[in-house]
Write a structure and sequence with these properties.
three-stranded antiparallel sheet; alpha/beta; 34 helices; 48% helix; 863 residues
Length: 863
Amino acid sequence: MTSPNAKDPLTPNMQAVFAKWEGHGPRMREGDARSENKIKWDQVGQLADKITQEGRAKWRERYGDSIQPASHRRARQRNRRPAALATEEVTNNAIAEFKSKPLITAETLLVTRPYMGNVCSCMPNSQVDFSTVEAVKMGFRNILDLEMRGRNWKEKYFANIVYAVRRRTKYVYPDVSSSVLTHPRVKEAIIQEDAEITDDKKRISSEKRAQRIFDVMKSTITGKLAGIVAWILTKVFPSILRAILVHKGQIDVVKKASERGVPMIYLPLHRSHLDYVLMTFIFWHYKIQSPYVAAGINLNIPIFGPFMKSLGGFFIRRKLDKSNGKKDMLYRSILHIYIEELLRNGQSMEFFLEGGRSRSGKSYPPKGGLLSVIQGTLSSGHVEDVYIVPVSINYEKLMDGNFSTEQLGLAKKPETFLGAVRALLKVCRTQYGSVRVDFCKPLSLKEYLQNTQSCQSSVQGSEPNSEGELSADSDLSPSPVIRRQGSVSSLYGSDIGNDNRQIVQDLAEHITYTSTNSTALMSTNLLAFLLLKKHRQGVQKSQLALDLEWLVSELKVRQRDVGFTGESEAVVQSASLLLGNHLVTRTMEPDSNVEFYKASSELSALVELSYYSNAVLSVFLLESVISCAIIYCCDVSLDNTAGHVTSSATREEVIEVAVEICQLLQYEFIFVSPCKQLEEALEDELDQMISMEVVQVKEMLCDDQYSMYEKGWAQRLSKNMAWRDEEEDDEENFIFQQTCQVNTNRADCMEKLKFYHQILAPFLESYYVTACQISKCLHTQFLESEFIHLIHSEAKRRVHEKLASNEESVVLDSLKNSVKSFSDMKIIDIYCVGNLRMVELHDHFEVKEKLNKYVDLLETLKG
């Protein structure tokens, strides 16, 4: 320990400081009245030095060299920030660095953007495998700008052709037809199907059916045709797109990973039919081998089907099983072996975990069927490792039109040849702005499986000892885990156990969470978000531009990037033009020459506008959950009722309600990565709300909160885990309880709280409609489709009669998700009777209180 008389670099010489102050003060003449009361700075300086030395000695005696004292409030500590440096480690050179280092350098003038797509901390080897130090410094490239210098007449007049010729590759795509059809697993499936057929004629057709299935499924990819198509796209894309933006550092990392000879699995978020072509186009530009792409059988239409096959597509059925509900083992076996053979030959693959295109603009819960085949191939030892690359694609304007008709209850139109031609002609006459594609850092599937298995082993090994006490590795209070039900028609076979099923599902959610939080937000996303969540009644253009700047700054703080640049007012105008007058109305105020922006009042337009807005929800998701919990627990008035008095709630009550909201919306969002604890993430967000002074806290000393048995158990556990300091035993016997209350004295805090609440309000109102219909109508069993139609009709009635606070609550996706969520909570039961899915109340007496509780919660938070 350093002696008190040692020179401390943090504390200056107080006498010299006071002497300098005195020198800068006013000069006094002899005899001046003020000179009689002149402060004796020498004595003050000596006294200050003495107080400083005594305080420093007492500090080191109590806390050692740590700058901050140990925390006594919580037994569970979260290492969210690095530990503070010891006093001796702060050198004079570090303190005076600002004197020798220039304030402005070439690096400080660079515009830095958040680098997204890093690997989660649960996979440390994948984090350091590919260095991203140089990749972060690289900028973006618009791949529509061909890098041709025009050094000769060929490059000048035939730039596209020369560019395409220079990107010719010699990648080999193997034919695995014989390996698939002669595989023992496929042969066994044929024999099994033959055994179920007694007619000899149908017995012969089993092998023909296997051949027919594979002919429809397999890809016919060729590198030459891909190059020709890419050359055509270099002519077509510039006429409909302003830019296709790709981070050069991200694609450089992907290119290095692909050169290792390990199969690459690209998993993009699915937003448009253009996703297939766009990914192949980017890989062709950077001379990366094109992957095999899994596509729905609905796209196998004349001309377009063979065209997609030649670019790497292979078609799979939406429903793998037969119409009678019986598993089609022959089809499953062929699909499984086809993917396995491609991976054994080192080929890369691309498919969409969400299954289909998002109709709501946010990510769908992932399906792990194809991912289970990848996991099974690695676990069986057919490949050494597999690199998984999450990818996010965001369009400034969607080319597929809008999904508002489907969200309002109309059936989806099937893909046809004429429909595809009409869509292409419409696309060629419209400008769609920019597209941003972000490639996340590759993660090793082998490492993920090893880490998951080791975590499971450590959890299973945490058992009570002979004295009935938990080991030091045990979890004191495990946070609630959200488990979603998997698809009933996925590729999961009977040979996969529940543990492996959960591993695959967690991996799928991990990838989807990473992709969602690596999505760059476009100008249309931010404009729609502000108009729906902040300025529902309209706003002037100047104020909208200021709010756009604020929103961009909030995104950067949260390490989220945007896919545009420019002055705010110009960005607002450009985004409104892309969205169109049917979504955003622009009017000039009569009294002044000021432009006024407002979201359209048409229901279909609001639903379409919510599609663009929903991409921003993931940024403020946990803040919105905590805000909703605070509003409910503290009885905050959302309509500014005069004389309304808010109450207070304990920290535990707020977190408990927040967890219930997350469980309720489990089919809408992935709140945290599966490797993280939901409760800890909510605790952090509540701390953030406290630091922003939106929530005020008071601490009360609670010594009688727990029984003597509970205190003794906690003390034994903390002793085993070395949480306590021997010198602080007396202080840790006290327990502090935090009471939260909304800061109603500040208008900006109330405005921020209501803004966060509005983010989830439309979804909560959809769930409120469902809960009310369950309580009102579900006294007998219903067909699931009829019950959903009943809920949808009620939601539309509320909108037409101006009873709904948020018109977007009418969307069909949220209503369907609410039915699944209430089924998971055992409020309703969904079961099959033959080919029919039925729904009924779980128990008329047991669930009544539970259902009323959710109705009260949702009625308060619906807005």
